[in-house]
Amino acid sequence: MRDTKAAGDRGEAEAARYLRQRGCAILDTQWRCRLGELDLVARDRDGTVCFVEVKLRGAGSLGLPREAVDRRKQERLRKAALLWLAERDCASPARFDVAEVYEDRDGRLRVVYLEDAFQ
């Protein structure tokens, strides 16, 4: 479990770095509530709040990381995002993104970013 958590943290850190390079501000990381966890919350250059679900896959993994963000996961993310927005009295436009982080055999990470991945 510890290795899985460390790998997930590494993937989230890489996704945050990717977003910062594109001019986004990171507002929150690993935000937890009774409804679940939001991996990353960012604000893009246009002021849109981005709720980013990060999925890491190692070399040789089968399937696309985005496939793990099924309807049930999406519903939990929607509810958590509403709570996050309400706690901050935030009326900014918002969207849900998925950051697919792939680890190459040599340990390097690569991000494939899916903006507005679901409603």
In which order are the strands of the major sheet placed?
A: 1-2-3-4-5
Helix tally equals 2
- Rg from C-alpha positions? 14 Å
**Helix vs. strand class:** alpha+beta
**What is the average of the pLDDT values?**
93
Sheet with the most strands, sense and barrel status? 5 strands, mixed
The helix/strand series, from N terminus to C terminus, equals: HEEEHEE
Description:
The chain is of the alpha+beta class. Strand 1 (25-33) and strand 2 form a beta hairpin. A five-stranded mixed β-sheet has the order 1-2-3-4-5, with helices on both faces. It is built from two helices and five strands.
Summarize the structure.
By secondary structure, the chain is α+β, with helices and mostly antiparallel strands.
Task: Please tag this protein with its features.
alpha+beta, 2 helices, five-stranded mixed sheet, globular, 119 residues
Helices and strands in order:
Elements: H1 2-21, E1 25-33, E2 36-43, E3 49-57, H2 71-87, E4 94-103, E5 109-118
Parallel strand pairs: 3-4
Antiparallel strand pairs: 1-2, 2-3, 4-5
